[in-house]
Amino acid sequence: MLLASMLIAAGLAVSALALTVLTARDPLQIAQATQPTQSTPGAETKPSTPPEPATTGQRPSDVPPQPARPDPDAQKAGAQPALPPAPAEKVAPPIREK
Fold it and tell me: What's the predicted TM-score (pTM) here?
């Protein structure tokens, strides 16, 4: 208990010291503004962003999508599923009415 009260007192003392230092300084010195950024020479003539690539909005047709679970014929032929089997659902008995 003594240690806890000493730690609280030390924290309050440090906070009071920091506040007195902040109030003793010139308030304009604390608030600092950054200098405005300067653009590179000739930036007005250069394009700011690259042009958007022309897209057709369609999927590429060279690689067809593969299903996560192959059909039973493909599994018999040796195709392995891409995902492990899902865990069984856990079902609890119904809640009894009181």
Answer: 0.29
